[in-house]
Amino acid sequence: MKRNNFFFLQFNHERYNTGSGNYPNDIAIMKLSQSADLTSDYVSTVPLPTVAGQNFLNTECYISGWGKTSATGTLADVLQHTPMNVMTNDNCKRSWGNSLIIQSHICLAVGTSSACNF
């Protein structure tokens, strides 16, 4: 992971990558060492759900990360992002298989882009 002077601490979910499915609880919170400039075109906050079990079906969202940009590619050294649409977990299971998708997943897809390669 590429880090800059603002990065201070990272808190992974206490159950990251434990349990069934593919990458369960794959979420983290980062604490910055100083306030970020929210007037910048390159920095913003991420809104969190206000209600447990909120339905995000057909909502546009962005995914980001330093993962692979193709199935056989190398890891990105610059943070990548792409807009996606939320799909039903049933549709996701048809594409990825029942054993990889669990209830807590929010499935995303647009064309050939996905959270695995974008």
UniProtKB/TrEMBL annotation:
UniProt xrefs under InterPro entries = Peptidase_S1_PA, Peptidase_S1_PA_chymotrypsin, Trypsin_dom
UniProt keyword annotations, A-Z: Disulfide bond
Q: Does the keyword Disulfide bond apply?
A: yes
The Peptidase S1 domain, residue ranges: 13-118
Keyword Disulfide bond assigned to the entry: answer is yes
Entries under Pfam families matching the protein: Trypsin (PF00089)
Q: Which PANTHER family match?
A: ACROSIN, ACROSIN-RELATED
Give the protein's recorded name: Peptidase S1 domain-containing protein
| Provenance organism | Tegillarca granosa
Q: What is the lineage of its organism?
A: Eukaryota, Metazoa, Spiralia, Lophotrochozoa, Mollusca
